[in-house]
Amino acid sequence: xxxxxxxxxxxxxxxxxxxxxxxxxxxxxxxxxxxxxxxxxxxxxxxxxxxxxxxxxxxxxxxxxxxxxxxxxxxxxxxxxxxxxxxxxxxxxxxxxxxxxxxxxxxxxxxxxxxxxxxxxxxxxxxxxxxxxxxxxxxxxxxxxxxxxxxxxxxxxxxxxxxxxxxxxxxxxxxxxxxxxxxxxxxxxxxxxxxxxxxxxxxxxxxxxxxxxxxxxxxxxxxxxxxxxxxxxxxxxxxxxxxxxxxxxxxxxxxxxxxxxxxxxxxx
Length: 268
Hints:
The protein is an alpha+beta fold.
């Protein structure tokens, strides 16, 4: 399976998607090829009564959406709350996540499980601009417990791009937000980070310290007005400040090397 082909195809589709329904259908289609059954990419709001500029894209059973709204699960959903306090993706089966569940939250998880919404993986998402106060996340439900780690990494990247595109659609009538221009070093660091390389590896390749790499990426995040490095990569790709083709060519060349200093699915 060529994961980068799927990611690139989805990103290109997002550039020309007709509307939010088109985005959701395209995301669901690629998720199925990666081994996932359902997804919910949404702002943390009442899914049936979302406020202006909220993003609500999901393929969960309709009965779950009704229960989630009528019982006001969105106010204390453990997945939402965890995503609001971390920038790192997490699995619902992780012991540290399960250990924090209150009895009402355990009931939410149990009710979701009865509808096949189980073994989820969530990517925290944050607004692309300071005017956007809504927290958000993208959760996917796998078909099995043996999904390749690269599928999860693909979800991590594509969900950020999906949310970005859906946010633009939701705020289509708002004034445009300016995208910051990255420095040469910031572009280099983000491009290598997009290949899955750690700050240490990036530093070795660019002959700078690991701390300097971290500072360049933090600076890029501030320029682009985002909260995570994955979002910074997505925005740099969207504004064509780094090229997706360069990332792909690097991966192709690395496949022919006898040893690798970094795998594209390795988390930095």
